[in-house]
Amino acid sequence: MMESDDKDVENDESLSRIKAEIATLNAKLNHFDLQRRQALNDLLDLKGNIRVFCRIRPILNNEYGHFGSVVSSDSTHVLLKFTESRRKYYALDRVFTPATSQDEVFSEIEPLIQSSLDGYNACIFAYGQTGTGKTFTMEGTSEWPGIVPRTLEELFKKSQTSHNKFLLEFSMLEIYMGILSDLLGPRNRKTTVRKIQSLSIRTGPDGGIEIDNLRAIRVVSADQPLLPMQIRSQADPTGGSERLLKTQASGRRLEEGKAINLSLSSLGDVISALQSKKPHIPYRNSKLTQVLKDSLGADSKTLMVVHVSPKDEDLCETVCTLGFATRARSIHLAQEESMELRLKKEYAIAELLKIVKKLEDECQEIRSDIENLYENLKYLTNVDSKSFDIPEDPQYDAGDKKPHVKNVKATPVLNQPRFMSSTACSRQKTSSLSPSAIRKKVQDPPVKRKSSSVYADSLSSPVKGISQSGYGSECSMSKTSCSNWIYNEECQSEFSEDSSECDVKMVVFAEQKKLPSTPYLSDKGFNRFKDGRTKKTERKKGLNFNNCPCPRKKEQTAAQIQRTKKGVTNAVPERMNVNKKGHIEMSAPIKLHTFDSFNFNAVDENDLNNDFALNRVDPLSEQEINQISIEMGSLLVDETQSSGNIFLIEDSSGDRTPQSDLGNTELHQSKQYEQTFHDSKHESESHKLDDKSNEAEDSIFKFTVLEEAGGAEILTSNGEVTDYFNGNLCSSPCPMQDVKKICLLPVKCQRDVVTPKGNMILDQKHEAREDSSTDLTNFQMDEHTGICNYFRKTVWMLCASVLLGLGIDNLGFGHEFFNGLML
Ligand SMILES: Nc1ncnc2c1ncn2[C@@H]1O[C@H](COP(=O)(O)OP(=O)(O)OP(=O)(O)O)[C@@H](O)[C@H]1O
Questions:
Q1: pTM, whole model, 2 decimals?
Q2: Which burial class, exposed, middle or buried, applies to 252 when counting CB atoms under 10 A from its CB (0-12, 13-18, 19+)?
Q3: 185 labeled part of a ligand binding site
Q4: Contact 566, 590 (CB under 8 A)
Q5: Which atom of ligand 1 is nearest to the CA of 474?
Q6: Does position 269 have pLDDT exceeding 90, yes or no?
Q7: Which has more pLDDT, 297 or 734?
Q8: Residue nearest to atom 16 of ligand 1 (CA)
Q9: ipTM over the 0.90 cut-off
């Protein structure tokens, strides 16, 4: 008897000890899990809340034609080869080559799934021309499952191992011609055709989006067939992203195409507004963006996978797709990141990855310890141990020690974007367990980030709906053709980012072609082209400006276009010399051309492969400096007063002729010219060269160079390139081929003054610079007081007034999407 009593006591003690241990471990698990969430979220925040990947489709067996114009140059760049000498790099967050497997694609996406289980909204969508592999990426095949089935599997796996409880539901929504319909909605019994019922979107009491009467199927296993009813859809042969002109769509198809484009341009606007952190996000501009509001919210994680075709004949669509992608990606990056910041960021990401992994491992270890303890309990009591009431362990009360999670508050466990959550009605039909019932069971509710919108309640990113809707899956094409992207007989203009830009640019370029001449290099200095036209081949001789896909270009307003078109004629200096002080002097009368911005392509130290070496301390000989000054003859710089560095590229033969095959750029006017680099390395470089020129200033060159718009390229900066005029980091490094050595040439440009005699004097006084930089046009006009000039001035003012009166919006250029595509 005594013995059995002792055993009971011992058992009781063991039970209490195990329970206490479980409580402690649970608290510890919560604590670590919170830390892991925080770290993962920080990691994803650092990577960017809106990321853009690109996947290049492989050439299919039955495909014929020309290939090779679309290449993945490295893991973050796509290179488009328009012709042998015309090519353009697009920087993205990740580029998947045709050989990339579904596994690899998914491994990049996996952290988002965990994040969604942690309580943050995520949205993954595929974008691209028809037939480029959106469905393959999202759904895949039975042999090669895509993101959706893998996500579901992963969600189940993770939700089962989690100490939280989850309710997973699946909804499917189509947006067609602005009408929302439930793809899981009721069907006609006889015909099995879905009854079209337009659903309405409304904003819930807490600001989230709710769709009335949207059905939700409760998902209990990853293998559960999600679509018990057969869904028939008719493929639209003109669907996808072909341009309307190309598809020659008419009637209903044309309307569909327009609706798609409207949706996607609205999506572009929303992404753009989110990226640039605008106070107003235009969600309401289309049904698509309204529906995606919660998933695209400021704190949500959005991943766009753009798809491109490897075919040469699809180059136009590819350009448009990549233009859209670049715009979505780079707006905030280009404006906010410096090289230093980027390096810090990369370091922080690597560190956070380690922390997340470590915390995940720790959580996993604790979970298995808890499991073991429960097993022990079960053994001791013969009762399913999890039903034991385990007390909270005060030791691990997270309390103040809880890691800080931004904008977080407790939310229900129904981890699903709000717009997809079922209504009371559909829940009644599909699930016996109401969310409120589940909520009661939740031990550690997931976090909500903003009361107004976004939620992380987990799971179903609306990918399926999007990719199937025919909306999200299509690529936006703007209203006109982008045929002038290809340098061909018909269109010998510059490449542009998209069709709307083509329109605008054509105006500009057409006018520029009329420009009297283009500076041209010779040993003696500038010469003119006799025919007054730009010869593209000649640019090779110039220092290269490169057209990086950063959104450097300011919106080119109609007024600016007009001004470029009408106003400032471009005369060319007859002579240009570099004096001993490193100044470039020009003696011929010049008039300066105005442009809207100045783009530089990035040469990122990190992105240069092993063939490249940056040699920043390689001083230039005077002869080389002279050579550069001559090379600069092909730069188009006007009224510039900026400083920076130019990469001089040395090829394997030791020739320091700068590379020419790096793309094109538009050079435009910017109001914020006065920028200097504060990078100490730059400054030290500058001073070295300054010594040479006996200049007290921190730069060696002061130059003004003229050229026609577009085409010139410059490589500049400190292993990355900073926007010359705006001082912004260009986050789009341009990998270069055949470049052995790069050295820096610090440069300072100052806006020059054209004297009435026409001689250019390099202005060194700040006040004077400001005076004349404020309005070059006025300056020129002041030179001439004749009736023609007065008339011209009046026309100018009239144009400007009309444009201002009409508003840019009315002219169609104000649409942010199109503006963005002009980048
Ligand atoms: N990465 C890939 N590897 C192998 N095959 C691919 C890949 N991407 C696409 N394909 C194949 O290319 C074809 C077109 O792909 P898919 O149907 O996914 O294009 P889509 O963009 O969804 O087209 P649509 O817009 O018309 O629906 C399919 O046969 C698909 O299997």
A1: 0.47
A2: exposed
A3: no
A4: no
A5: 25
A6: no
A7: 297
A8: 133
A9: yes
